[in-house]
């Protein structure tokens, strides 16, 4: 089956990566994230304080480097939103609003260099799936830019996708990559700022196109703000995979 969406073909002699490299958590290298995990483990040995509020955390809650106190946990763990969030032409499934402790959790994960929190976010996304009885076949994610990966030491949504895959028992594929950074000069027009930011991963094996044909794929991200990033990702994915249904799913919605 030919690649839809005019996907770039490899030049003769170009080495093709192992097709399973697109299944996050199997053969794709996570060198940067491994370094971040080592740093988080060292921090855990030095002190055991809540990553959200800074209060002392019991030894039981320190297991796995999650380090969330009971008070914060009681505030962030709840029943997911019973109805999807509607913005623009999108209907997005989400766990909660980007406020208070849930916002602090996301920030601690992304900018506090605590990759272990990816397990918590994956758990919340799974609760959304169960709440709505979402029927799906595979998972993909909104990728971070090269600059963001360099600053954080990992692609945050790739980590969440990997943890989600473990819990859900579903394969996760890296279908998108960033072609450029967000255009800060167009910050007032967020739609134009992300236009052309994402492209289909050009080294996707042909068999993946066949596998995804007529399937439903979850597109996961951490926070939905204006909806422009999610809208752009869906636009690109639908061009590359016209027969695949994509469902947007996020941890939090900013209102």
UniProtKB/TrEMBL annotation:
Ranges where the Phosphoribosyltransferase domain occurs: 207-243
Cited InterPro entries: ComF/GntX_DNA_util-trans (IPR051910), PRTase-like (IPR029057), PRTase_dom (IPR000836)
Family as reported in the entry's similarity comment: Belongs to the ComF/GntX family.
Alphabetical list of CDD domains matching this protein: PRTases_typeI
Gene3D superfamilies documented for this protein: 3.40.50.2020
Protein name: ComF family protein
UniProt source species: Fervidobacterium thailandense
């Amino acid at each position: 089956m030919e690649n839809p969406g005019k996907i770039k073909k490899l030049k003769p002699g170009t080495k093709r990566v192992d097709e399973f490299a697109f299944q996050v958590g199997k053969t794709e290298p996570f060198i940067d994230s491994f370094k971040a995990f080592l740093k988080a483990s060292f921090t855990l040995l030095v002190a055991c304080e809540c990553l959200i509020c800074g209060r002392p955390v019991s030894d039981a809650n320190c297991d796995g480097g999650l380090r969330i106190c009971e008070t914060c946990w009681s505030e962030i763990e709840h029943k997911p939103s019973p109805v999807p969030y509607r913005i623009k032409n999108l209907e997005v499934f989400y766990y909660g609003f980007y406020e208070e402790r849930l916002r602090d959790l996301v920030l601690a994960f992304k900018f506090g260099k605590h990759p272990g929190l990816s397990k918590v976010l994956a758990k919340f996304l799974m609760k959304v799936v169960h709440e709505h009885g979402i029927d799906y076949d595979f998972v993909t994610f909104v990728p971070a830019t090269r600059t963001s990966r360099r600053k954080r030491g990992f692609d945050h949504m790739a980590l969440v996708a990997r943890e989600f895959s473990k819990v859900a028992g579903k394969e996760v594929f890296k279908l998108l990559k960033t072609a450029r950074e967000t255009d800060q000069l167009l910050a007032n027009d967020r739609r134009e700022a992300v236009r052309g930011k994402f492209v289909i991963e050009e080294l996707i094996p042909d068999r993946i196109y066949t596998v995804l044909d007529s399937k439903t794929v979850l597109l996961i991200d951490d926070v939905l703000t204006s909806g422009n990033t999610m809208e752009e990702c869906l636009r690109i994915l639908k061009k590359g995979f016209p027969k695949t249904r994509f469902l947007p799913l996020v941890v939090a919605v900013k209102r």
